[in-house]
What we know:
- The complex is a heterodimer.
- Chain A is an all-beta fold.
- Chain A has no helices and twelve strands.
- In chain A, strands 2, 5, 6, 10, 11 and 12 form a six-stranded mixed sheet that branches. Chain A has a four-stranded antiparallel sheet with strand order 3-9-8-7, with no helix packed on it. In chain A, strands 1-4 form a two-stranded antiparallel ribbon.
- By secondary structure, chain B is mostly beta strands.
- Classes of the chains: A mainly beta, B mainly beta.
- The interface between A and B is medium-sized, with 25 and 24 residues.
Amino acid sequence: AQSVSQHNHHVILSEAASLELGCNYSYGGTVNLFWYVQYPGQHLQLLLKYFSGDPLVKGIKGFEAEFIKSKFSFNLRKPSVQWSDTAEYFCAVNAPGGNNDMRFGAGTRLTVKP
Amino acid sequence: DTGVSQDPRHKITKRGQNVTFRCDPISEHNRLYWYRQTLGQGPEFLTYFQNEAQLEKSRLLSDRFSAERPKGSFSTLEIQRTEQGDSAMYLCASSTRNLQQFFGPGTRLTVL
Lengths: 114, 112
């Protein structure tokens, strides 16, 4: 069964600091990988996704993620965070060609201090 | 707004009562999903529809839970004889084929 681990439960940064949120998944086959963000009081929104091709994926708002197959990882990065990036971030995985049910990590709460 | 909508946004009920939630997916999306999210956790998959067919159900979906999508458009999730452990955010998402899922705002259920 697929599972997703997010190593950091709560990250606190100052504005302009660099961000890296860890995500590891457990699944033996081909996977699709996602990062979703949930801003306070809002619904889940897609930040970026990886299906195939270039393992370095660029998403919205300056976020990027790198798929490292050998490490079963899909870490999220941003060079310089802003106060508006304060949110909950969820890594997710599904198996292409299957029923497409998504497995989510427990989430990482990011607090950016102004 | 052409996104996924859910109704109601909040529901407070007493233990033992039945509740029903509705999800309206993005109109051209043939796949619809229900998830449950509790505090401090990511969403957990409950069930999945392709058009009107319910193709997969998680073991989390006990026999008190039932979901329907009668015409392949909107879906309902019913919880019978609610328990305090059912308190959670219930999320609906929709997609086309094997692409990204778009999530609705959720229905927050509180069982007293």
